[in-house]
Amino acid sequence: MFVVSLSLVVASGLTHAIWSLFTKRSRNKSVFLWAIVMVTTVGLFPYLVRELWITPLSLQAYGLLLLSACLQSIYALLLAKTYNMGDLSQVYPIMRGTSTLFIPIVSVLFLRETLSVYGWMGLLCMVIGFLWLSGIISRKQTSAGTVKPFLMALCVGLCTTCYVFVDRLNLQHVSAITLLEVTNIGFMAGLTPIVLRSKQIGTEWKMNAKIILLGAILNPGSYLLFLFAMTYAPVAHISPIREIGTVFATILGIVVLKEKQGKLRIICSILILMGILIISFFG
Question: How far is CA 169 from the centre of its chain?
Answer without folding.
Answer: 18
